[in-house]
Amino acid sequence: MRPNETEVYPVIIIGGGPCGLAASYYLKEKGIKHIIIEKNEMLQTWKNERWDSFHLISPNWMTNIPGIKSRIPYNNEYMSGKEIYKYLKEFMDMVDPDYLENTSINKLYKAESLYKLETDQGIFHAQKVIVAIGLFNQPFIPPVAEELGKDIYQVHSSQYKNPNQLKPGGTLIVGGGCSGVQIALEVKQHTENAVYLSLGSMRPIPVIYRNVNGMYWLNRLSGFQVESLYYPIVTRICAIKTFKMLLVKTSSVASQVVLSLQGGLLKGKEQNSCFQTVFAML
Predict the structure, then answer these.
(1) CA triplet 145, 146, 150: central angle to 5 degrees?
(2) Is the pTM above the cut of 0.85?
(3) What's the maximum distance between 2 C-alpha atoms anywhere in the chain?
């Protein structure tokens, strides 16, 4: 699709994930014309960047997808990656948005009363722009990882699928959140070799506390949403510090490292220092 240089969209949505689709859903309800621009595939992360045994860390009752909420079980179980992708694909088919895939936006700026989006497909014009690209969506590889020898296999969690892609030998996991826990448990169940965890200052929240799901407590805590934006920065610093301490021993205890660090949307020095609270390196 080549943009019509004279057409002005009332709204352009950047990002074809759940947030972008939800924005499209509500815009359609209001009859507002729009288009979604996605740099990869629609639902790219959920379709292509999850390991085979991935499960959500939030129970099903927390999954609220507009328009199809009644189809999602309301219970304390956890959906697999395949299950949540199935619901998101159903949501996308129901919304049926206009979208453009595999299109990179090189520049976004305002010229007089309109926004201009310079893409590798041409220039789009819009009255309003919704940025729905999500937080912590860029894999982050700390420079210290380059100090590992070439005989140490490294893979980021966005590219990790299952233990079959790992080499024989010990495995080192660096990080401090639930994704790493899932990967570490899976690797441990499929190998007789040692599996090491390098943890930061954070620990995953308890699945159950006082017989109630841990995510329920997080939602009840005052200020949780604000404070959570700062936790990953602390975790990254501590996790990488621990990783550096283990670096000199890595060659003797592990033959591979899996990275699960994510860059955030913060500006300035924090631009690439924030990561999703997941376990990091195998």
Answers:
(1) 105
(2) no
(3) 64
Phi and psi at residue 213, to the nearest 5°: -55, 135
Residue 224: both structure tokens together: 């949780």
8 A C-beta contact, residue 63 and residue 86: no
Q: How many CB atoms lie within 10 A of CB 60?
A: 16
189-220: pLDDT as tens digits: 888 888 887 776 666 666 666 677 777 776 66
- Angstrom distances, CA of residue 165 to CA of 33, 52, 256, 261: 45, 12, 11, 19
Question: Could you give the C-alpha distances from 232 to 61, 129, 221, in angstroms and in order?
Answer: 25, 28, 18
Strands 138-140 and 34-37: unpaired
Q: How many CA atoms lie within 13 A of 22 on its CB side?
A: 15
Looking at residue 205, what DSSP letter applies? P
Q: Are 254 and 173 in contact (CB under 8 A)?
A: no
Strands 212-213, 105-111: pairing is: unpaired
Question: Which residue's structure tokens are 């660096």?
Answer: 174
pLDDT band at residue 116, thresholds of 50, 70 and 90?
Answer: very high
Nearest to 54 by CA among 78, 90, 30: 78
Rg value, the chain, Cα: 21
Contact present, 214 and 205 (Cβ < 8 Å): yes
